[in-house]
Amino acid sequence: MEETEKEIESMRAASEEVSRQFKTLIDANDLDSLKHLQLLILGRLQDSNAVLSHFNEYSEHCFAEVSSDFSRNTRMLKSMKSDLDYIFQKLRSMKAKIMATYPDAFPDESTRE
């Protein structure tokens, strides 16, 4: 048991010595300057975080306002597309029937499909 306590004491003494040596390598003013800069950066990051949080809340509110209109308009556009597809299909069918009955009805090649 005594050897373990001696080892612990020697490790503690060694770590204190290393710590003291590191303190002599770095100037206290430099450490204070670094600490001050870190606090400034922390403040700026907190301000940026607050601005981004506010923007996210605003964006969420705006999205909630327009999402129902967007969904309704999307459904309407899909319905209009299917209606137009049906109309163009009927027009092609009618045009084919007219072309079969009256081949000279559309002399222009640009109207043929």
UniProtKB/TrEMBL annotation:
It comes from the Eukaryota. GO terms for cellular component: BORC complex. GO terms for biological process: lysosome localization. Belongs to the KXD1 family. PANTHER family: KXDL MOTIF-CONTAINING PROTEIN 1 (PTHR13511:SF0). InterPro entries: KXD1-like, KxDL_dom. It comes from Gossypium armourianum. Residues 22-106 form the KxDL domain. This is KxDL domain-containing protein.
